[in-house]
């Protein structure tokens, strides 16, 4: 299993927001992706799958669980896909747990990547306010 270490939001090594990227994840089960994310140890690892409704499907895992969307991991995946010659069109779309989102590549080298975030979801806080502020 090849996991790319990509740092988003920087051109300087070790100064960005790191993410693991697995480009060919179609045959991985959820528990395998979680185990890989634990072993990688970054806040997020993104797994790239084929999609029937978008150019790619992305699944995001922390070392503890799956999350719906991660901005810096999306940027890392797009950079990795583009660098490996797997993206040749602009814009593209990605399938995520929050829906299908557009991705745009800009600039002369197309290294500037713009994405749409999912719609916010507001849920009531049911935890301890004392522990939250303490």
From TrEMBL:
Keywords: Isomerase. InterPro entries: Phenazine_PhzF-like. The keyword Isomerase applies. GO terms for cellular component: cytoplasm. Pfam families: PhzC-PhzF. The keyword Transmembrane helix does not apply. GO terms for molecular function: isomerase activity. Belongs to the PhzF family. PANTHER family: PHENAZINE BIOSYNTHESIS PROTEIN, PHENAZINE BIOSYNTHESIS-LIKE DOMAIN-CONTAINING PROTEIN. NCBIfam families: PhzF_family (TIGR00654). This is PhzF family phenazine biosynthesis protein. It comes from Paenibacillus apis. The lineage of its organism: Bacteria, Bacillati, Bacillota, Bacilli, Bacillales.
